[in-house]
Amino acid sequence: MATWAIGDIQGCFDEFKALLRAIDFRPDRDRLWLVGDLVNRGPQSLETLRFVRALGDGAITLLGNHDLHLLAVAAGHGRLKRGDTLDDVLAAPDRGALLDWLRARPLFHYDAGLGMAMVHAALAPGWDLATAAARGAEVQAALAGDADGYFAHMYGDTPHRWEDTLHGWRRLRVITDYLTRVRFCRPDGTYEMRAKGPPGTQPQGYLPWYALPGRASAGTPIVFGHWSSIGLVDGHDVYALDTGCVWGRQLSALCLEDRRWVSVDCSAHGPAGGD
After folding, report:
1. Concatenated DSSP letters of 191-243
2. Which alpha helices (H) appear in the chain, and where do they start and end?
3. Cβ atoms of 212 and 187 closer than 8 Å
4. Structure confidence by residue, pLDDT tens digits, 212-251
5. Are 11 and 84 in contact (CB under 8 A)?
6. Most CB within 10 Å of its CB: which of 111, 141, 196, 252?
């Protein structure tokens, strides 16, 4: 049995199937960790959702920012953007079942046996793994309870830093930002949402979230996606998996048992440099 963590698929279903062949994935034997962003920008979001849902317990899938965007649009609290490729999902006869399944996905995962964790984007610098799991569970509870209220308040300009005293929708918004959107932070946890390039392109005073000194989650390997401009990263106890498949680069997998990388080449489906 092998456990493979795979980067952002974003509707690139043909490339996803090619990668599964390259790693000799067998659902009766192996397991997948999918870092989120199953959908959008690529041409086959619907096929990707159907396939992963059918894997059942064979795949642990996180919510990414594009997955949340799809859910927000479906709930009437978001608009399709230029370059979105979500119409097939929204018009599908099994739309309800697929969106219900997607909305129930977690935002953070930790496996004690493997000694590894997974997040789509980032952790706040003061969050250890137990805290990250608890914060992610708060968002899951909102999605299972008042999903309409959650999506109505998910987007916003403030606040841009975690504080334990945050409450209500502002608290959930900041948790969502860290787990699904953040790349750069200051040491106090203040995050910058506009900087999307590789390290060295961020505003002064900011660092990649995983390189912050004194990060509470350091010491346990964490796999993440979301950041296509940095490619593969293997250091700081983190493994970055988004190698920009939807932008014509590669789709990559990491075997969590032996840290072996496997990648397949991809053809571009959208304009380079997207989020």
Report:
1. EESS--S-TTSSPTT-EEGGG-TT-TTTTS-EEE-S-GGG--EEETTEEE---
2. 13-22, 45-54, 65-74, 87-90, 95-103, 129-144, 147-153, 168-180
3. yes
4. 999 999 999 999 999 999 988 887 799 999 999 999 999 9
5. no
6. 252
Closest CA to 132 of 210, 59, 245: 210
What are φ and ψ of residue 96, in 5° steps? -60, -45
Q: How far apart are CA 70 and CA 80, in angstroms?
A: 8
Task: Specify the 3-state DSSP secondary structure of 275.
Answer: coil
Q: Which domains does the chain have, with CATH numbers?
A: 3-265 (3.60.21.10)
Q: Is the pLDDT of residue 78 over 60?
A: yes
Mean predicted confidence (pLDDT) in 122-132: 97
Task: Say which residue the tokens 């795949």 belong to.
Answer: 59
pLDDT at residue 275 tops 80 = no
Average model confidence (pLDDT) across the chain: 94
Confidence of residue 270 (pLDDT cuts 50, 70, 90): low
Angle in degrees, CA 250, 226, 22, rounded to 5:
30
Taken in order 222, 17, 68, 57, is the CA torsion positive or negative? Answer: negative
